[in-house]
């Protein structure tokens, strides 16, 4: 015999989650972040959220009323368009952890996203592209003009996006791109130095 409460609970959960997604989208837009709706997990082969609308770059300047309407009936992912107000650097967990440690040591936090796929994403003001040494590292992706990043609580197939460091810690002031890139470059150098020391120790 079917349990009728299962369907009710599922519908109720989806409705509550949609409201949470909408609230986050409205809150970010109120801070000037260019928010657009994205797709949700859609079974096998889904590789991550993408904008729902073809004209998403034009929609990224929408106001809170439009955003509330977009999320009024669908539990869309929350995406932030990069290249105008926000840029992002996506890195592997090893580099991300080392860079976050350096940021804490210098007392200069930056908003950091944690992806369900293990990636770390550092947010900055829009600015210059990555320096060559960072761009050459496999897995490092710069999100500038024409790109986007998912923000909490956007769902993936196995988990949701969450904050490692919330924007409130930085009082909603994004760090300069060059400054953050410099920290990431230092983190990369320390990783390479550590590996070199370990290889030398094993060879001795």
Kindly report the average pLDDT value.
88
Count of spatially separate domains? 1
Largest sheet report: 5 strands, antiparallel
- Which band does the percent of strand residues land in? 15-25%
Q: Helical content, roughly?
A: 40-55%
* Backbone CA Rg: 19 Å
Itemize the secondary structure elements and their pairings.
Blueprint: H1 4-30, E1 35-38, H2 56-59, H3 64-70, E2 77-82, E3 86-91, H4 93-106, E4 112-114, E5 120-125, H5 132-135, E6 141-143, E7 147-150, E8 155-156, E9 159-160, E10 162-165, H6 177-203
Antiparallel strand pairs: 1-2, 2-7, 3-5, 3-6, 4-5, 4-10, 8-9
Helix pairs in contact: 1-3, 4-6
Question: What does the model show?
Answer:
- This protein has one domain (4-203).
- It has 204 residues and is α+β, with helices and mostly antiparallel strands.
- The protein has a 5-stranded antiparallel beta sheet with strand order 6-3-5-4-10, covered by helices on one side. Strands 1-2-7 form a 3-stranded antiparallel beta sheet.
- It contains 6 helices and 10 strands, in the order H-E-H-H-E-E-H-E-E-H-E-E-E-E-E-H.
Quick rundown:
The protein is an alpha+beta fold and 204 residues long. It has six helices and ten strands; from the N terminus they run αβααββαββαβββββα.
